[in-house]
Structures are given as structure tokens and as C-alpha cells.
């Protein structure tokens, strides 16, 4: 039996033993082909094959490929420097697919750096949407700008605000809140017993997440979409945050068909009962998706004052 820090979640994580076992396996590695620059995918497939790297198309997610061997330093290849590929885990595509960005829309990515989702939004819209990519950290925004430049993306404006205080102005069509979180979904243990991706934080993450989601909602137009995502299992950073919004604003949670296996949002946790609409949120587990753990709420702003 594998011991993990997730015993408190045993009651709701499906097939808990398989889940725990999966945390001992290395994380599969994926890339996205950047079609804004790479017009012939054979160029990438053949170029990487010459270096001993093989690609398997992830049929469920447009533009994504699993690479083998997993540990290959893909960020040192010519294909990476030319902006033809972007290393990105498959779950990270899901909030963008949920946002369903369309050319001509104005989209705010409230916690954007280093730009994995911003750049996928640009790719999905052929760089024909105006994206405002915000992050509170300048060092991470610098990485975002460098990524966008390498990928050949032009339709992005960057801003540096605490998202909770992002200035009110003309409303956006859509807002993505890929929130700072405890990152539990990235937890793995190596054969040597080393714990990967464990984050220690003294910050009150749920308080920050609630502030970000509320502001995102106020920044989107009536009928517009807010997607809230985290890579953690913790219900206090997921369902409880969405519950907080539902109690304060006129919102609807959309029931989505995600292309990877998912489970409904929880009805309750530790005796705390959540709004029944939260069952339309989606939870993703690493042993079922072969990727990191994830949570997504796709929210529509309704008219009215709440
Ligand atoms: C999960 S990461 C975002 C990853 C990014 N969406 C991507 O796909 O590349 C969370 C980001 O939120 C930023 N952040 C943390 N607190 C914030 C706040 N109060 N307002 C805005 N950004 C914040 C962090 O600097 C970090 O870059």
C-alpha cells in the first residue's frame, strides 16, 4: 500500500489505491504543435525522430502529442527554439477548450504566466482575438512575453495587476482564472522517495482564489463566460470557491463534455454542503487522465444583481 498525503480525500477519489499507485509513476510528457508557426507537422515529427524522440498523437485534444522517452530535454531542441512546439500537459488544454475562444472576442487571462493557456487561446483563434494576459509577478510575465515571442503570437497585451484589483472597464467576452493553488495535482514520488511538486505555502489560497473569481465575474459581460481552473484536489480551493461565487452573484455552471475522463464536483466535504449546481464542475484524476490532477468550473454570467 502506498502512503500519500491525500488520505483525507479517500472518500471521494475514485479507486483510491490505483490513484495512490499512479503517484509513483513518472508524469507522461506532452507537447503541443504550434500551428501558428509550424505549418507542416511532419517537420516536427521527422525532426524530433532524428533525435530519437517519438510522438503519439493525443486524439482527444487538438494539437497535442505524447513524447517518448518522457525525460527527453525537449526544451533544448531546434523545434522548441523555432517555436514549433510548446511543452504542455494535456489537462492544461481543457480550460481553453471550455472557454471556446472565437476570433474577434476580447479575452482576459487573469493569472496568465508563463502563458501556456494564453498561447493556446491564441492558437485556437489563429491569433485573431485580443487577449489581455495579466499576472501579478513581473518575473513570470517576462517568461510569458518571451514564450509568446518565440511562438510568433502578436494579439496579446500584458498587464501586471493583482487580479483581485484588475481595473473595471469595458467588459470582456470571456475571462480565464487559472488560479494560483496548492498544486496537489502535480504531486509525484520518485523511486528514490523524492517528492516532486510539493508546495508549502502560508498564504490563504482560498481567500485569494475567491477574490480572483469574484473579480473575474465582475469583469465579464452579461452572458459571458468565466472559466475557473486549478491543479489541486483540495475542495476548499475548488468547490468552496465556486460556492462562494454562487452565493454572491447571478451565475450558472455549465455542464460540459470534456474530452478526458472526469467526475462531477463534490456535493459536500467534511460536513460542509455545497450548492447543488456545483455538480456541473469537473474533477480530473491523474490515474484516469495520465496527466496531472485538475478542477474546472465553466461559469456563465446571468443578468440580474444576484
Ligand atoms: C497556475 S499559475 C498560471 C499558469 C498559467 N495560466 C499558464 O497556463 O501558463 C498561477 C499564476 O497566478 C499568478 N498569481 C498569483 N497570485 C495572483 C494574483 N493575486 N493576481 C494575479 N496573478 C496571481 C502567479 O504568479 C502564477 O503565475
Automatic annotation (TrEMBL):
<dbReference type="InterPro" id="IPR029063">
    <property type="entry name" value="SAM-dependent_MTases_sf"/>
</dbReference>
<dbReference type="InterPro" id="IPR018314">
    <property type="entry name" value="RsmB/NOL1/NOP2-like_CS"/>
</dbReference>
<dbReference type="InterPro" id="IPR049560">
    <property type="entry name" value="MeTrfase_RsmB-F_NOP2_cat"/>
</dbReference>
<dbReference type="InterPro" id="IPR023267">
    <property type="entry name" value="RCMT"/>
</dbReference>
<dbReference type="InterPro" id="IPR011023">
    <property type="entry name" value="Nop2p"/>
</dbReference>
<dbReference type="Pfam" id="PF01189">
    <property type="entry name" value="Methyltr_RsmB-F"/>
</dbReference>
<keyword id="KW-0694">RNA-binding</keyword>
<dbReference type="GO" id="GO:0001510">
    <property type="term" value="P:RNA methylation"/>
</dbReference>
<feature type="binding site">
    <location>
        <position position="135"/>
    </location>
    <ligand>
        <name>S-adenosyl-L-methionine</name>
    </ligand>
</feature>
<keyword id="KW-0949">S-adenosyl-L-methionine</keyword>
<protein>
    <submittedName>
        <fullName>RsmB/NOP family class I SAM-dependent RNA methyltransferase</fullName>
    </submittedName>
</protein>
<keyword id="KW-0808">Transferase</keyword>
<dbReference type="GO" id="GO:0003723">
    <property type="term" value="F:RNA binding"/>
</dbReference>
<feature type="binding site">
    <location>
        <begin position="111"/>
        <end position="117"/>
    </location>
    <ligand>
        <name>S-adenosyl-L-methionine</name>
    </ligand>
</feature>
<keyword id="KW-0489">Methyltransferase</keyword>
<comment type="similarity">
    <text>Belongs to the class I-like SAM-binding methyltransferase superfamily. RsmB/NOP family.</text>
</comment>
<feature type="binding site">
    <location>
        <position position="178"/>
    </location>
    <ligand>
        <name>S-adenosyl-L-methionine</name>
    </ligand>
</feature>
<dbReference type="GO" id="GO:0008757">
    <property type="term" value="F:S-adenosylmethionine-dependent methyltransferase activity"/>
</dbReference>
<dbReference type="GO" id="GO:0006396">
    <property type="term" value="P:RNA processing"/>
</dbReference>
<feature type="active site" description="Nucleophile">
    <location>
        <position position="231"/>
    </location>
</feature>
<dbReference type="InterPro" id="IPR001678">
    <property type="entry name" value="MeTrfase_RsmB-F_NOP2_dom"/>
</dbReference>
<dbReference type="GO" id="GO:0008173">
    <property type="term" value="F:RNA methyltransferase activity"/>
</dbReference>
